[in-house]
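User: Fold this one for me? It's DNA-(apurinic or apyrimidinic site) endonuclease.
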Amino acid sequence: MRGEYFPHAGDTHHLCLGRSRRDLHCFFVPNFAGFFSKVVTTIALTVRTAVSRCRGALYLPVMPKRKAAGDAKESPKKTKAEVGATSSKSDFSSNAKTKSGKHWNLKIASWNVDGLRGTVKKNGHAYIPQEDPDIICLQETKCTEKDVPKEFTGAVEGYHGYWYSPTEKKGYAGTALLSKTKPIKVTYGIGVDEHDDEGRVITAEFDDFYMVTAYVPNAGRGLVRLDYRGTWDEAFTAYLKKLDKKKPVVLCGDLNVAHNEIDLKNPKSNKNKTPGFTDKEREGFTTLLDEGFKDSYRELYPEETDCYTFWSYMGGARAKNVGWRLDYFVLSDRLMPHLCDNVIRSEVMGSDHCPIVLLLAMGK
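Assistant: Here's what I get for DNA-(apurinic or apyrimidinic site) endonuclease.
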C-alpha cells in the first residue's frame, strides 16, 4: 500500500487509515515524551504491517533523510537563460554534399528571434558562434541598430551588419542581415512605398547571388490583413522575379505560411481560420514557386513529417511538437545543383521559432 503523511497543526504524528482523503480515520498522538514517541512509532509500524493486506491506503509520516556532513549541496534550479544556453549546445558539423558530390562551402542561417533583446536575455545569441554561419539573417528583431544588446554585438564580432526597422512603429517587425563577407550592395525594402514602412526586407548582392531576408506580413488575428497580405505577395513575387533575371536568388526568412498540410500539425482545424494557412496565402506561395523557385527543404525531404520551425508559447506546444513550418530557404531553380542540405535546428531555444540552416556548394 502507498503511504502518505498529512501534516496537521500542533500534531507530531497524524496516522490516517482509509481509501482516500474523503474516507479517512485519523488518530492524533501528541508528542509528550520520548517514551510515548517510541510507543507511537511501534504502533505505526505494527498498523502498517497489519493493514498492508487490506484494501485501502495507509498514510504514515515520511521523514526527510539527514544529509551527511560531506554531502554536496542540492543543485540550484537553472534559469531560463541557462536552459536556453544548454539547449543550444549541439553538434552543428555536417558532411553534406550536392548530388554531384561537392562538399558545402557556404552556410547561411535564418532565425525569427521574436524580439532580439528577449532572445539575448534567454542567452539565445550563444547559438550564433556555435553555428558559425557565413551569413545570418534575422527576422522580427523589434529593435533599431542602436538598441542592439552589447551581448549580441559581441557574438557577431567580425560580421558586417545591416539593420532595417519600421519607420514609425517602434518595437515591431524589423530585419537584420549579417555577413562575414562584405556585400557588393545592400538595399532595403522592395521599392514599393506601401510595403516598405515596416522594415521587412533586406537584399544583399554578392558575386554569385542575391541574398534576400524577409519577414512576411501576418494576416492578423481574425484575418484582418489577409487582403493586404495578398497585395504584398504579388508585389514581393514581382520583386524576386526582377532580381532573378540578374542573378540567382536565395530567399530566407519567416514567410508566414505553411504551404501544405504536411507543414503543420493540425491542418484541418486551422484551414482558412488561422493566419498562415488560408487558401489565399498558400496559393500566393505556390505562385512564387511557379515563377522559377524551389522550397529547398521539400526538395530534399518531400515526405518528412513533424518538421516544424514555429511553436506557440501556449499549451506546451513545443514540448508536444505541435508546430508549423513557417521559415524557409527558397532558391532560384538554377541554384538547385548547388544545394547540399537544409537543416531545422529545433533544439535551439530563445524564441518561439527555431533557426534554419542552408548549406550550399558555391563556385565552379
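One thing worth pointing out: The CA atoms of residues 87 and 208 lie 35 Å apart.
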